[in-house]
Amino acid sequence: MSEMGIDKRTIYPILECLYWYFNPLNVWLVSLMVMEMGIATLIAGAILKRRGEGQLKVVTPAPLAVIFGSLVFVISVYAWGKGENVYVIFLNGYRFFFGYGI
Q1: What's the CA gap between 73 and 31, in Å, rounded?
Q2: Most exposed among 3, 8, 39, 48, judged by the fewest C-beta atoms under 10 Å?
């Protein structure tokens, strides 16, 4: 967890801290990171094939599906209200689980 998440843990219950830790921004970042992993797999396959150590096919369906799926997710979430709607859903979930607070 980040330093801010550890600081909040001293004030708030652990489940509430975890809920805030998995906010929509982190979901976007994880999705983009997954897309980068798919791209890196393709690049690594090309490098290994050039060296003569790798597989026969560089472009395989799995990395392409990961890249495409992640890209579709990020674009669709951004197109749907530039992410504001996802944050509203996140806040409504917080109010459902933990109440309105102060």
Answers
A1: 8
A2: 3
